[in-house]
Amino acid sequence: MFGKLPPPACPGLCYLLTFIIGASEIVPRHQAAWSLRFNSCLQTVWEPGPGGHGRGQRTELTLPELCVLGPEREASAGSLVNPERSPRPGSRRRKRDGLFGIFSQDPDTELEVAQALRMVKTNFCPYHRIAAVGASMGVEGLANDASRSHCPTRNLREIIGALRLFRSDRDNQERLGLAKVIQELVTMVSEIISNHCKLSKQHQAIPVQDPEDEEWVRPQLLLQGSEQHLTQSVSRFVFHQLHHRLFPTEPTAEDNRIHLQIQRLWWLRPRHLDLQKALAETEQASEAVKLLQRLHSLRSPNEMLEVMAQAFRITTQAACLKSQLAEGICKTSQDNAFGADEALPLFILIIIRANPRMLDSVLSYAERFTTSDQRRTEQGYALAQAQSAVEFSKRCRKEQLSNLKPGEWESSLVLTDNFMKGTDLGTLAPTWGDCTSAGPAAMADVRWCPVMVVACGPEADLAESLSALGAAKPCAEAGPLLEDGQLHLAASGFCLWENEGPAAVMTSATLLAPFLRKRLASLVSDRVLDPRLVATTELFVVFPGEKPLVAEASLAACLPLPAEPSLQLLQAALDTSPSEEMTWRPPVVGNLGVRCSV
Amino acid sequence: MSGAAQNVFHFKLVLLGDASVGKSCLVVRFAKGEFYEYQEPTIGAAFMTQTVNLNSEVVKYEIWDTAGQERYKSLVPMYYRGAAAAVIVYDITSKESFDAAKGWVSELQGTNTLIALAGNKVDLEASRVVEREAVRAYAEQMGVLFMETSAKSGQNVQELFREIAVRLPKDSEEDDEKAKGFGVGVKGAAPKAAGCCGWS
Predict the structure, then answer these.
(1) pTM, two decimal places
(2) How far apart are CA A165 and CA A571, in angstroms?
């Protein structure tokens, strides 16, 4: 079906099309046709066909001629101003500084708006007016004001182009009032398309019943395009176009800080927040973790909010059903209905488990570019939950947690902190000794087992990546193995078990050295690494035994350590038996001797 | 826009109160009450919506529950930010929960939020600790709405949310927001630009 469509008129629009196909699971079937129709309208708004190039030929789907006014734009940005629109060649360009100072105050609020972006109809554009006045007086170039930028536009492509000219890092976005301008643009485009498609507002008034109550969808609903759907499509399109200007491409310092802070709490369990373990361990919770982990790769604030809300919804619903089942029957009048008292700790645990990348950027992006209407809904609630979770992990103190075993807080944090700083575990031994001497109960339910960690990724220079880490020789016992342009590595690891389930695997950073994306610049210490692998890397943990178990793993943190001595020290310090579920005798760490047979 | 149809107003309502006062039950009772024909499909959870039909208007609540435990207390302002109404729940059998409720009342006094105080678990009259009249006097003094409710029997639950709906100011905020987007950019800017330019 899609093969027969003519190729889209502009490269940007491929995007929208791909997205709709990709999202067909969540778009109700009867909306798909409308998605395509909105898309074709957007194409026209984006750039009316070659026939409509002149000023005269305007259709319903043409944006009014608008001027984007703003502060002086960055020097590097090219000029978008149309040659025919800019002052006529040959005219003396007299630069006037601050002529437009009179526009620097908003007459309504009397606030300084000199730094803000404005979008006005050309008819009302002060530049055009002054130029006209100047022309009538015979003064040319009256409106050339170097202190402000002025971009006349004729279609959506030019507006987006004009918006892209401004430096829009996070501080600037607020000063520019970019959120407001984008909102205006989305509303304007939606209105134009809505008029064109004659989306009837009357239909909206029909009370839409709960779809679950009706076995069939009413025919008029099938035929009816929804304004909400239209606005979503338009806003998604506009944000996709501007995404790389609005959302940082690399984690910011704050992102990294929050990432590490959440990382520190990886050991937090439901009991620490007085939450029933069963509520936190649902299939939906794992699904939510996966959803949250891809937040930073989404390309519009609405999609981010949607995913956050979805993650929130599925976990609370699953937990709620579980708690109701546990009570036998749903008794709403009982004293303990499921509510935020359970939902918040649950979401905190999920955020900690997911520890999404660039979380701070995602949250502030989603907050800045959503309407106040949206902030009131479930999506807004999910955003508040996520913000609370981040705030909680920032401020988390020992007194706030329940059911801590003696020494648990200290040992967990010391362990994490030292791992993060890349401290040689040799210096850790006294601390560990202390906590085990506090009583055998201290680490009683933490067990361990050795595992094999297998990584496979694109070919890389092992020696070079190792020396970048400051390591001399690879710790990989088996390999490196080069096959089909893929590099395979395997090494021993150490798996901590808690509550008889594997909780975390540790291995030496030297194993992963060839696949690590890059070093993080002096964040906590210069030995902390960006805990990310190059995109094509696969990472598995193999639990040996009679029937070896293979589990996919994802990397949470990576620190350069002298591997085998550290792990042996840790093993000795834990001094607890290996997990009882392990029927085999654990070999000494470092001598697993399993060959990578991939 | 909706012509003769009823005006729909959306309000954010936040629930505050200690962990065991039954605020979640109160709202589940409200959201699942048998008085309303059309219900949003909800299972009891932290976020719910429910509508109240007044004569000429429909009030649609977006209800935000908050965690009541002490350890999350500092996070609560993130939830009540921008709320039109706050229902502060205490347990009539617990003095502590009432003290906590008073704390919330004074914290929210300075904001534009409409405050309602709900003394829950009135079905447990026998073990009452917080006297009704004392609270009534306090509520009058602070100028907040007060009702004693029972999530168990449903007593006063619908009444409470209906009363809030009646009292909430409905200054057609909805229409303003609708008109804003397009208006500011194109229509709204017109007189502004012309006005300050003054040369037209």
Answers:
(1) 0.67
(2) 57
